[in-house]
Amino acid sequence: MKAWEDLASDTDRSLCWTQSSDWYMDMGVKIERFHKDGRIEIKNVMTFTDSFEDVSDDLYEVFKSNGWMEGCIGVNIEVCQSKLLRINSLIKSHIGSGKHSLVEPMIEKRLFIQKKINKYRNLLTKND
What we know:
The protein is α+β, with helices and mostly antiparallel strands. It has 4 helices and 5 strands, in the order αβββββααα. A 5-stranded antiparallel β-sheet has the order 1-2-3-4-5, with helices on one face.
């Protein structure tokens, strides 16, 4: 897996370990290789719950083929897009309920998240 190879060869990255696995965590993503079977799991740690979530199969393939940075960028874009959907829903709800004073701050948050998505997409094009 290219993502694991990228991290293992990077002397600036710190390897963490337990009795059963080695792992790295950065950019909101945890990659873990288990000693027993060599299996590699990749988790999104930027969740709204107390547990980490597996990355989608499509993103797992990005980590596998294209490496750590492109995979992390993909995860971050997905997280930002999810936030954007929630904010858009809140804006609609506030407008519908007449809470117009709450709309402007939400629009500012939406703009901030859209800029983050553009930043990540620009990073992807720089890596090409």
